[in-house]
Each structure stands twice: as structure tokens, then as C-alpha cells.
Fold this sequence. Notes:
This protein has 196 residues and is α/β, with parallel strands linked by helices. The protein has one domain: Rossmann fold (3-Layer(aba) Sandwich), CATH 3.40.50.880. Helices cover 26% and strands 32% of the residues. Strand 10 and strand 11 form a beta hairpin. The radius of gyration is 15 Å and the shape is globular.
Amino acid sequence: MKIGILAVQGAFREHEHMLQKLGVDTLYVKKQEHLEGVEGLIVPGGESTSIGRLMREYNLIPPIRELAKSGMPIMGTCAGLIVLAKEIANGDEPHLALLDTVVDRNSFGRQRESFETDLDIPALGAEPFPAVFIRAPHVKAVGDAVTVLAYYEGRIVGVEQDHLLGFSFHPELTGDDRIHRYFLQKVEAWTKQPSA
Length: 196
Ligand code: GLN
């Protein structure tokens, strides 16, 4: 299994460490050619406007959209969720525009710029997930194909749409690897498909 981590800006190293601990081969995606042979992609947290701008500059948006359309799993965390969304509430141009959601940036106010909290995520099992939020977005609206995986204070902070996953928080910053394993299961299922 070979997982690409979009590495134009943001917290990509932490995802690499998490995947290495899980024994998975990773590579940094900074140019189109790095996407060759990649079987899943992580879009990390950081600054969504910078990530979007650099993706455009390096012509990464069309090939990643193509791969997503062919069924390749993609997981976006924090800014990565914003990059995946079809619509950004404050009027920013959407970036990858794959995940059928409206996402609002910087949702949790100045006083709560960053915090850690235990979230109930039934898809991962009964044990709460330690979620680190840093100037996090939340999902304001979802389309029919989207399943909500997690809420925080009544707001949607985790979603799934077939092979796409999006989280408001940073699952790579804690020792809990269940979200990465959940993503890898999707990658495994996809690589085993006869047509893949
Ligand atoms: N606030 C950032 C944005 O809007 C996201 C923050 C993060 O990824 N930790 O892009």
C-alpha cells in the first residue's frame, strides 16, 4: 500500500509518522508526478488558502480530482477538510470540490482557538476519540451521499462520503490511530477491487 500525503504546506509530517507507525509506505505529494502509483491521499491541516493556492500553482487539482473520481480514497483533516469541500461558507473559491458539504472556517471562536476534547465516534468503536482542534472548521450542511461520523457541541466535525473522509480536527496529533486505520481500510478495499 502506498499513501500520498499532500505536502505543499501544513502538518504533513505528523501524518507521515502516524502512517509509518502503522507500517505503511508514504510519500510526499508536491508535484503531479508524485501521484503516480499512489493508492490513497491525505490532505493535512494547515492553512487552506495557502494549500489551495499552492495546489493550483503546481497543477495538482485536476489530477487529484481525476483520481478521486476513479475511487481513490482521500482523507482531509482540518484545513484538508476545507480543501475537500464543495463549498466554503465565507465565499472562498472551493479547491478540490469533491466532498458534498458546506464548510465554515474558524468555527470555534477566538477563546477556543485550540483545544482537545473526547469525541464520540461510533464508527470507530465505543472508546471516545481524543480530538485536537486548532482554528478548526465545521461542516454546516451535507448532501445526501454524506454520512456524519462525529459531532461536537451539535456541530458536524466528521464526515464520510464513500471513499472520502473529512475531519475538523487533527487525528495525527494524538496517539490514537483509529482514524488512520479507518482510512486505510478504505484504501485496502479499493486496491482489492478487480477494476482498480
Ligand atoms: N483555520 C485554518 C483554515 O481555515 C485551518 C486550521 C488547521 O488546519 N489547523 O484553513
